[in-house]
Structures are given as structure tokens and as C-alpha cells.
Amino acid sequence: MTATAEMTKNLTQPELQAAFYDLDEHDHPEGGSTMLGFWMYLMSDCLIFAMLFAAYGVLGGSFAAGPGPKDLFDLKLIALNTAMLLFSSITYGFAMLAMEKDNRGGTQLWLLVTALFGAAFLFIELYEFSHLIHEGATPMRSGFLTAFFSLVGTHGLHVTFGLIWLFTLVVQIGKKGLIPANKRRLMCLSLFWHFLDVIWIGVFTFVYLMGML
Amino acid sequence: MSDHVHPNHHLDDDHGSHGSLRDYVIGFILSVILTAIPFWLVMTGAIADKSTTALVIMAFAAVQIVVHMIYFLHMNTKSENGWTVMALIFTIVILVITLSGSLWVMYHLNHNMMPMTSHEMGQLP
């Protein structure tokens, strides 16, 4: 008889089970780890953008005799776009402050103001894209344009989904009020929204400003 | 801090602070300044040397990202017992490896490709 078998003989069945996994039920409050989990998601999202930035860095100079950044970009438009996103960041901050004061109407109002700025950002971006495509600078034109549309388009897609999420929350707050679950959702969206602004800093610096140098 | 804080206290500690109005306003003003200067530099060409301008605007971007992290994302070393910062550091390490690695390798690839004569090009399959 081996040593292990001798040991197991003296143990009762529940003790044996407990040796392999934790049977202790501890308290896991609902949403207790949501914020950390959401942060992990944001970090992985950050890596997606890192790949797209890397692709742009590698392909950014491959114009295939097509138009380059200086022929295509309009910095005034980008400055306006950046301002929209920055304004939406601070208005979201105001929504969070209203939430902390349990001010339901104020939260909804500031969320809608944020949505307005976010929508303006998207509108300007789509205008820019349609302008580029109209000029023949489509994603198929060159490696530079493929990388450009992938990077900026992915960011724009994130903003779009952020907006959908934002409207959903406005409706949810309207229906259920500022319950803990809604507050948690608002905090997640807050992280998401400000994170998109951080990514945009990288985009306007590396793509637009450095492209125009 | 002990590992087994009561879950509810834990929740309150971490999510009680979302920054004050003052934080948001300071962050916003700093962001406006840190955005306006690079745009102004590039649009007016205030610095004649292009690589200097590039370095300056990259520095402004880095500072602005930190400002956003502190004033808008309310990052601090204590939230979630330090795990958010750990995740952030890990991400930054991977990010630096990915970006610098890709640029380095692809730059060398382009440079070290054997030059081809037009005759050789004609023989490509």
C-alpha cells in the first residue's frame, strides 16, 4: 500500500473533495469585480489599437504613388473633431458628478449632451471619410490608406458603440432610476468613453499631426 | 491592506471617488492646452526642424495621456488593490514590445532586401 493511499484512508469523503477545490461559499456581491474586469477588457482593447498603430507605422509610408497625408488631411477639421471629443469627455464627467449626487435628471441631461458631442465627432469623421473616398482615396488605394481607414475606422466604430450604450443607459436610468446596477454601468461607460479619448490623442498625434509635418 | 476586506467595504472604498468637479475642470483645461499647442506647432510650423517638432508633439501626447489617466480615468495605485495599475503596466510593456518590435523589424526588412536588377525582376515567377 502506498503512502498516498494510507493517507486517503483516514480522510472522510467531504475532506477529500475539499482537498481538490474550494467548497467554501464566500460572499461575491453582484458586480463586485465588474470594474476590474472591465478594466481588463479596456487593456485588451488597448492592445488591438496598438496592433493597428503598429500596422499604420509600418504601412504609413506606402503610398503606391497615390495621395499622401498632406494631400488628404485638413487639420482644421481634425482640430474641431478633437475639440468635440474633449468636450464630450468633460460633459461625461459632469454626468458622473450628477450621478454621485443622485440627481437622475441631471445625469440624463449630461449624458445626452455627451451624446450630442459624440455624434458631432462621428458626423465630422464620416464627412472626412466620404470626402476622402469621393477623391478616390479609398482603403483599396494604397497600404497607407488601408492602415489609415482601419485605425481611424476602428476608433470611430468604438465611438458608435459607445453612443449606443449611452442611449441605452439613458433609457435604463429613465425606467429604473439610479440603482446600483445602473451606477456600475455608468462607471464602466465612463472608463470606456475616456479611454476612447486617450486613443484619440494617439490618433491625432501620430496620424494627423505627424503626417502633416 | 489585508486581502480579505469585507466585499462591501471594498466596493465603497474603490468606487466612492469619481473625482471632483475640480479634478474634471483641471483635467479639461490641461487637455485643451496640451492639445492646442501641438496643433499650433504643426499648423504654423513654429519650429523649423521637422524631427524636433515630431519629438515635441509626441512629448505633449504622452503628457496628455497621463493627464487623462489621472483626471478623467481616476487611475491611482490603490484602486482594486493595485490590480488596475498592474494590468496597465503589463499592457504598456506589451504595447512597447509590439510597436517598437514591428517598426524595427519592418524597417530593417525594407532596408536589407537584396536589390534586384531589372533582369532579375523579369525572371520572377
UniProtKB/TrEMBL annotation, chain B:
Transmembrane intervals: 24-42, 54-73, 85-107
Chief site of localization: membrane
Pfam families reported in the protein's UniProt record: COX4_pro
InterPro entries (UniProt xref): Cyt_c_oxidase_su4_prok, Cyt_o_ubiqinol_oxidase_su4, Cytochrome_c_oxidase_bac_sub4
Compartments (UniProt record): Cell membrane
Molecular function per GO: cytochrome bo3 ubiquinol oxidase activity; proton transmembrane transporter activity
Example GO biological process: aerobic electron transport chain
Membrane-related topology note: Multi-pass membrane protein
Domain of life: Bacteria
Assigned GO CC terms: cytochrome o ubiquinol oxidase complex; plasma membrane
UniProt entry keywords in alphabetical sequence: Cell membrane, Electron transport, Membrane, Oxidoreductase, Transmembrane, Transmembrane helix, Transport
Quaternary structure and interacting proteins, as annotated: Heterooctamer of two A chains, two B chains, two C chains and two D chains.
Record's function text: Cytochrome bo(3) ubiquinol terminal oxidase is the component of the aerobic respiratory chain of E.coli that predominates when cells are grown at high aeration. Has proton pump activity across the membrane in addition to electron transfer, pumping 2 protons/electron.
Similarity comment: Belongs to the cytochrome c oxidase bacterial subunit 4 family.
Protein name as catalogued: Cytochrome bo(3) ubiquinol oxidase subunit 4
Biological source species: Novosphingobium lindaniclasticum LE124
